[in-house]
Each structure stands twice: as structure tokens, then as C-alpha cells.
Amino acid sequence: MMRVLAAMSGGVDSSVAAARMVDAGHDVVGVHLALSSAPGTLRTGSRGCCSKEDAGDARRVADVLGIPFYVWDFADRFKEDVVDDFISSYARGETPNPCVRCNERIKFSALAARALALGFDAVATGHYARLSGGRLRRAVDADKDQSYVLAVLTAEQLRHAVFPVGDTPKPQIREEAANRGLSVAEKPDSHDICFIPSGDTRAFLGARIGVRRGSVVDAGGTVLAEHEGVHGFTVGQRKGLGIAGPGPDGQPRYVTGIDADSGTVQVGVAADLDVWTLTGERPVFTSGAALTGPVECQVQVRAHGGIGDGVAELRDGRLVVDLRAPIRGVASGQTMVLYRPDADGDEVLGSATITR
């Protein structure tokens, strides 16, 4: 029997995860993370994973399960480590994934550290991923797999993690919740960025970064338009560029590069988005063992999609992947995650933040 802290977001996945830990005979305590000091600034309904009614939903599930329940205030930490990081990353012309940062710095750094300090053995969450033999793997439900956003975790953090729903397809999780009498059984899945209530990322960033004018240029350096800040653009973007129609060759134009220092947004054709080599800093190897030589792998650069085959190796402390075929629309600030297929399902080898 373990002492388990169940992170309860108020959604169906974390609710069933907590229930399964209780069924397994563990000593379970539920905790909900309050991530905003002003509740109205987080999304409501299905629009985010930490909206203001979620604490109530989590508490009701804990009551049904008969486990103690607490709300922990992580608002300051969340603002500093996730929201402020998101804003400053966009200001540098990068495209970050805030869910990756939240898992890394809040759910498995701050939360797990507090749990261990309080004498818990493990933290259980509703993430769709699997752990076997200390190795992080994709979930059985490929459509819901969240191993990508967990690939920034260290071997030590994973040693104290449990993902009870990763071996089950999502429809069966909903059915199980209904059979258990949990009110969240039909609750819509969370999506989008929880700290942008309007859903308008450009407006959210503009209000915090301010106007920093620059130019939209083509490959030859010709100025096509003016803009109010590089934070309004991401590599691969096609709409909202402020330019009239396609290029002289009739092909649509996309953002192909962003230089925050000069305020320049470069556009080109789709083929200009092809990337053959990825370089990443701050590599993390989820097994605890760094790569010792070139390794054949799959690499994923977005939470959903952006997958290719390649050869990865460490060069001067950086993680470099040479791709077999190009991946399109890769931006600095994104996380690249390495996978190795094996008999037990795709194993996560590690991750790094893309710099080039």
C-alpha cells in the first residue's frame, strides 16, 4: 500500500484515476490546484482544464470516493512559471507549449515536491500515458496520448508518478465514471489555453507585451507590410499576415521565420517551411540515461502531429535530430520529444526545447 496524492482537476480522467487508486487499496488524498488568484480569469465550462467550477466537481468526486480533499493555492507559482514564461517566450519570437511547462514546473515539480515532503509515496494524475519498468510510454488510446507533454519529466519525477488511466481508451473511462456514479462522467474534455479566457491569444499577448512595430518581408527582404509585434505570429501561420493575397507566383505565403530583435517576420512559400535538422537545448532523458551515440527514433514536435523519423544524438550538450524526411512548420520554443518503438509500445527517450 502506498500513500498517494491524487491530483484532481475536476475532469473525468483524474476522477477515475483517483477512484482506481482507492480500489487498489492505497491511502489516497485528493488535491485540486488553484491556479488563479482571480477565478474569473480562467476559462469556464469545457474551455480549459482549471476553470473555477472544477474545484467543486473535484470535491464532489472525492466525497463519493470517501477520501480527504484539499485545495492547494499554486496561483503565484503558475503565473511566474507558466503564464509569464509563455508571454516572454512569444516576445522572443518563440512558440511555447504552456501545458508542457505546467506539467514540468507545477504538477511534477512544485506539486510532487510538496507531496513527497508531506510523506506521500506517489502522485497520481489523469494523464493518458503509461509507465512500465520505469519507462514512460504512449497511452493505449493514441488519440488521447499525453506522453508528449510529460516528456520533460526526469526519471526521479517519474519514479513518484502514477498514470492509472493510460492503459484504457477514453470511451471506457467515461463508461467507468458513469458506473461509479461520478457526476463528471459526461463532462466535456478540456482544451485550449486555460489562462486566456477569450481564446484570443494575440489580444492576450498584445495587452501584456504592447506595441513593438516591425516589418513583414519576403525572402528577398522586400517589405510587404508593417505589424505591431512579433508575438502575433508563429512559424507556419498563413492567415492574418497583413499582406494582400498570394505571392507573385500565385502560391500562398506562410510565416517562415521570426527575428524578435529586429522585429522582422519573414514569409515564403510552403516548401520554405521544410525542416531537415532539429537542434534542442536543455535535454531531459526520461530513463535517466543520456544518449551514448546516434539513435534511430521518431521525433514529435507538437502535442498532436508533427511526427517524423530520424537519427538523434548529443552534440556539445545539445540534442540534434537529423530527419529522414522534412517536417513542416517547426518553431523555436516548441518541445521535441523522441520516441523509440518497441514491443511494449512507443517508449519516450527524452525531450529538448527547440532552438533551431
UniProtKB/TrEMBL annotation:
Keywords attached to this entry: ATP-binding, Cytoplasm, Disulfide bond, Methyltransferase, Nucleotide-binding, RNA-binding, Transferase, tRNA processing, tRNA-binding
Family matches, as InterPro entries: MnmA-like (IPR004506), MnmA-like_C (IPR046885), MnmA-like_central (IPR046884), MnmA-like_central_sf (IPR023382), Rossmann-like_a/b/a_fold (IPR014729)
Active site residues according to the UniProt entry: 102, 194
Annotated segments matching region Interaction with tRNA: 144-146
GO terms for cellular component: cytoplasm
Main location: cytoplasm
GO molecular function, one term: ATP binding
Reaction equation(s) it catalyzes: S-sulfanyl-L-cysteinyl-[protein] + uridine(34) in tRNA + AH2 + ATP = 2-thiouridine(34) in tRNA + L-cysteinyl-[protein] + A + AMP + diphosphate + H(+)
Binding annotation for ATP: 7-14, 33, 126
Entry-linked HAMAP family: tRNA_thiouridyl_MnmA
Record's function text: Catalyzes the 2-thiolation of uridine at the wobble position (U34) of tRNA, leading to the formation of s(2)U34.
Protein family: Belongs to the MnmA/TRMU family.
Protein name: tRNA-specific 2-thiouridylase MnmA
Organism: Mycolicibacterium rhodesiae (strain NBB3) (Mycobacterium rhodesiae)
Lineage start: Bacteria, Bacillati, Actinomycetota, Actinomycetes, Mycobacteriales
Gene: mnmA
